[in-house]
Amino acid sequence: MASIQESIFPAAIQHPFSPSTIQKSESSRTLLEAIGARIPARRDLAKKLSTLHSKHVVHQMTVENVMGGMRGMPSIMWEISETHPTGVRYHGKTLNELEAALPKWPGSTQISPEALLWFLYTASIPTRGELKIFTADLLSRCKLSQEIEEFMDSLPSTLPPITHMHMTYSALARNSKLSAAVKDGVHKASLWIPALEDALDITSVSILVISRIHRKFYGPAGPMPELDTSADLAQNLAICMGRSTDIKFVELTRLAWGLHQDHGANVSAHTMRLVSSSLADPYSTIAAGIIAGTGALHAMAIDNSLCYNKRMTASLGFNPSTADIEAYILADIQAGAVLPGYGHAVLRVEDPRLEWVRRFIKQYPLPQQADDNAPPVCLDLIQRAHDLVPDLIRKHLPKVKNPAPNVDALSGSTMHAYGVEADFILLFMSNGRGMGFLCQSIWDKILTLPIERPQSITMDRLLAKL
């Protein structure tokens, strides 16, 4: 299959998209054509906002905003999602609404990551034909050069897997079509096309990157198996990891990539947005976002929650009484310990994504095992704790704005219970998160948004303004 760069890029540079260029029926559109159909209206809206309404006040800045890490300031345009107090909206739709509308991959009961990705790029629901074409295009790009494979194999196993991941993306940056276009002086209004090429290349090759890292640390040994071009990315990741017949793992992959595909301008996304705004290549941008995600207050919270749940399982066992669970949690609260997985900067209800994880556990229950073969976390115990912790926090920590559990409280532990190694979870989740950000980076370039450059201020100057 010819790439976008080969078949459309030269003409698109000279003749940017207009509605008249979109000729194919909806059932046979490529992703490029679906994006192109949306561009005129979004560019018109961007022009209207930046001209007619450019001086309109949308927020009053306070000292709290400046001193509090810009929390609550609507200062970043994020086109594909928005986090409401009741949950994430994707082009205005909830995950439940999208689940009902998006086509699923044949044989799967989970939301299709590729279908959701199409929707994030285009704000339109793909047909089954479009989903098939899109997935086939992704798999046609899925290859690593011998040079990159040798580089990955040369990295020492004393470095953690997540370091291997961001170093590999940094090494892949030399392949960037966006960097080549910038160097060649391509007009900024057309840079989204080579950027989209990079984005799709990264999305596809990511399964080879993370599976090769996994094989280095955990096996199986031997050459990488052939991809199944009739399958989706999740199934091919399982093939590369030697788990092609493990339907629970394949479905878990689809679930994880769907739930974590986009979440607005959080730390890793904001980092990628900042780096991308300088016209850095998408590979280096993703590497920066992965590094940002290793912070304990951000994506690494999923690891903190897993560790907490492991300790709770080790202390209480698999069948404690409700009183024992309450006593364990209360002791931590009274000791001032953090309860990872509870609360959220924006949400003011229980994270709606939690219900998806619970549903997966019910649909694909783990088999009963002897104690010596039991998983390191008890998913039933964790869910029982979810019913008790919010009331304990309300009673003993009344200043906490949202005591409800968030998705991290269960998702990482579920991945681990179903066979994802603890130090591999962040890679597993980051793969989906990168997909979502790349959509936003393309729309940044379509709308020709400028480089991010907020003005900094010292405390003395801030005080002088009061």
Largest sheet: 2 strands, antiparallel
The fourth-level CATH homologous superfamily of the domain at 138-297 and 421-447 is Citrate Synthase, domain 1
| Number of DSSP helical runs | 22
Name the CATH class of the domain at 138-297 and 421-447.
Mainly Alpha
Distance between the termini: 62 Å
What does the radius of gyration come to? 23 Å
Number of strands: 2
Strand order of the largest sheet: 1-2
Label the structural class: mainly alpha
Mean pLDDT: 89
Order of helices and strands: HHHHEEHHHHHHHHHHHHHHHHHH
State the low-pLDDT regions, or none.
Answer: 1-25
Helix content: 55-70%
β-strand percent reads under 5%
CATH topology of the domain at 138-297 and 421-447: Citrate Synthase, domain 1
Q: Under the CATH scheme, which architecture of the domain at 138-297 and 421-447 would be assigned?
A: Orthogonal Bundle
Shape: globular
